[in-house]
Automatic annotation (TrEMBL):
Protein name: Prefoldin subunit 2
Biased composition range(s): Basic and acidic residues: 121-135
Keywords in alphabetical order: Chaperone, Coiled coil
A GO BP entry: protein folding
UniProt region (Disordered), positions on chain: 121-156
InterPro entries from the UniProt entry: PFD2, PFD_beta-like, Prefoldin
Length: 156
């Protein structure tokens, strides 16, 4: 009897380890997604800056933040630097995309190897849950918004 309990505990521990590894793999994928999104926003900002300063006179004074220090340069000097930064960010995004695809393949292989299936809510269950949430929700009914000092006048 004791040996049976010990083997059940080992199997349970093994399942816990598998779940832990799977969760960490999914977490890595989510982190890669968020980092790529953050970098894509930076690329967008760099592009906006380039569009704004491109039509300006190349000898015009321009300021650029370098390592937390605001530095005075000319448009002619800043434009190539901003473009280089944007291109570097795009290269990093491309490498992160390749790494993301590799991680997704690893997760898919891990799911197949350990027969992991994600539970999805059935449409009927989702509707029932939504109905329960609506019925049990408590709220406060508020009248029309008014600003301080503004009187609400009703015409009767």
């Amino acid at each position: 009897m004791a040996s049976k309990v010990g083997s059940d505990n080992r199997e349970l521990m093994n399942e816990q380890e598998i779940a832990s590894v799977y969760a960490s793999m999914r977490s890595e994928i989510n982190q890669l997604h968020s980092k790529m999104t953050e970098l894509e926003m930076e690329v967008s900002e760099h592009s906006l800056v380039m569009e704004a300063i491109r039509p300006l006179d190349p000898s015009r004074r321009c300021y650029r933040m370098i390592g937390g220090v605001l530095v005075e340069r000319t448009v002619k000097e800043v434009l190539p630097a901003v473009q280089g930064s944007r291109d570097g960010l795009q290269d990093v995004i491309a490498r992160l995309g390749e790494l993301l695809e590799k991680k997704k393949k690893e997760v898919a292989e891990f799911e197949l190897k350990h027969k992991i299936k994600m539970r999805r809510a059935v449409d009927g269950e989702a509707k029932n849950d939504a109905g329960r949430k609506e019925g049990s929700a408590q709220g406060v009914l508020v009248g029309p918004a008014s600003y301080p000092g503004e009187d609400i006048i009703s015409e009767s």
